[in-house]
Task: structure prediction
Amino acid sequence: MKTQPFKVAIFDWDGTVVDSVEHITDCLHHAATTIGFPALERAAYRNIIGLGLVEALKQLYPGITAEQMGSMREAYSRHFMATSAANQRVFPGITGILETLHGSKRHCAIATGKSRRGLDLALQASGLAHWFHLSRCADETRSKPDPAMLLEILAHFQIEPDEAVMIGDTVYDLAMAESIGMPAIGVTWGVHESEALAAHKPIAITGDMAELQALLR
Result:
C-alpha cells in the first residue's frame, strides 16, 4: 500500500457502492423471458455484472442478432427504470467513506458498466450524487475491462495512474486498472470472490467496510 493518500478514488457502482446485484439479475432474467430467450442460471447473470449491457448480452447469448439485441436492451431498460428507485440500497459504511474522502480534499469518481441514464437515476435514488465529482458510463465510452473510462477520468483530473485507486467487486474492475498500472482494491460484498479478484493483483482485497476506509486514508 502506498504511503501517500490517493488523489482520486474511483468506485464501481453496482455491487461496490450499492447492493443492486440481485436487482440487475432480476432485470436480465425478465428481459430474456420477455423476448422469448431461455432463462439462464442466476449465477450466469451475476457473473457478467460490471460489463456494459451490450457486452454482457453477447457473452450470455452468443449469436444474438442485432434485432434481438435491440429488443432485449429495450426490455431490460424498461424493467430497470420501473424498478430501480426501490433497489438502490447503499451498503452500510459507504457514505462514511465518501464523507471522509471529501473531508480530506480528495476527489471521488465512478466508473460503471451502467448506462448514463441508469446511473443518473441510481445516483438520484441513492442520494449520493453530491459526493462524486465525475463519472463515466459504458454507453459513453468503452466497456470494462477496456481501461478507456479510467484513462478519461485520469485525463480530467490531470493525474497519473498511480495517483488514483480503483475500488470494485468484479474482475472487470480490477482488470482494467491492472492494464494501466493503477492500484486497485477488490471488495468481496458484491459479485466475484476473492480468489478471482486476486488474479488481477490488487493492492488489497477486503470484505470489511472499516478496513476499506482505513486503506483509503
